Amino acid sequence: MSGTPLETHLVRLIRETGPIPLSHFMALCLAHPEYGYYMTRDPLGARGDFVTAPEVSQMFGELVGLWLADRWLAEGSPAPIAIVELGPGRGTLMADALRALRSVPRMLDAASIHFVETSPVLRAAQCERFPDASWHSSADEVPDLPLFLIANEFFDALPITQYQRTDRGWCERCVGYVEGRFVPLLAPVAAANDKALPPALAAAAEGAIAEICPAGISIVSGIASRIATHGGGALVIDYGHERSAAGDTLQAVRNHAFADPFEAPGEADLTAHVDFEALAHGVRSGGAAAHGPVRQGAFLCALGIEARAGQLARNASPSQREALERALRRLTASDEMGSLFKVLGITPPGSPPPAGFA
């Protein structure tokens, strides 16, 4: 083992209390106030551990911004409004979106910019780019205004709870410390209430693993409730599956490569695939309309990414045109980000399908 400070803390915790739920382990690895992964570094880009779509090309953020503008116009151009991003990283997506929104008369004049961010390192980077923005620890803190919200690769990093089907029923998966290693272990007693599990898993075979993300459902339901009450629209973009299904999707990424999720806690990004069927159910339970999910490639193409790439290519050098072609492929191709990543739209109840979801 690496002997990280967080490892020492986790070993002590497990020795005092016994194995801890996987959700608790994941939360501490990512968000421990002193040693958590997101609390101590900028994880993005070539020098970090992974690259997100906004870092691939400006086209991504521009099209997301224009989608928000289309929603604003469809809502009758309300003022004032809140433009919000959950987990905004370095602020690249928001910068590109706002640049696109400058072409929409009066929208930026009506808007205040809000970031939901818990990482002090990333907050500092965002503050340099957006000194007039407001920062919040949760979406609940955003003012009660028409909400135009972006969540790109936010829900995948929320802690998940895992259960495994046994001859005793569904037992929660925990994390113990055995022979110098963190290892997954099953709780000795089956869950008293398994109604939180997706109905699609009711007939799952013994050995099957189920994942739920209570925090994600709570957050998306809250967003939906605000949009149902005050108007607006939201996009959730992430990697995951369209329908609830069994499977262990917990993964770790370090230095742009997959790693052992239980090794070197606090030094790797831990994520899990997003269950978009569960999120859509959470949207509807919050009173809003859910659209999709659709595949990212199809969504971006419907919004005109190919035309935007051609427009940028007109004044580009040969090397820049090659870079544009690579970025377009990475964002839209089915063997790149185009199929694995999905997009869920949220609008007020009764709204027709918004752009990209028709």
Your description of this structure?
The chain is an alpha/beta fold. The chain folds into 2 domains: 5-33 and 159-212, no CATH class; 39-158 and 213-257 and 265-347, Rossmann fold, CATH 3.40.50. Helix content is 35%, strand content 24%. The protein contains 12 helices and 16 strands. The strands form 3 sheets. Strands 2, 3, 4, 5, 10, 14, 15 and 16 form an 8-stranded mixed beta sheet that branches. Strands 1, 6, 7, 8 and 9 form a 5-stranded antiparallel beta sheet that branches. Helix 4 crosses helix 5 (92-101), helix 8 crosses helix 9 and helix 11 runs antiparallel to helix 12 (318-332). The protein is globular and about 60 Å long. The N and C termini lie far apart (50 Å). The model has no long low-confidence stretch (mean pLDDT 94).
User: Stretches where pLDDT falls below 50 for ≥5 residues?
Assistant: none
N-to-C SSE series? HEHHHEHHEHEEEEEEHEEEEEHEHHHE
- Can you give the mean pLDDT? 94
Instruction: Please give the CATH class of the largest domain.
Output: Alpha Beta
Query: What structural category do the secondary elements indicate?
Result: alpha/beta
Biggest beta-sheet profile: 8 strands, mixed
Name given to the CATH homologous superfamily of the largest domain: Vaccinia Virus protein VP39
Number of helices: 12
CATH topology of the largest domain, what is it called? Answer: Rossmann fold
Observed structural traits:
358 residues, alpha/beta, Rossmann fold, 2 domains, 8-stranded mixed β-sheet, 5-stranded antiparallel β-sheet, 24% strand
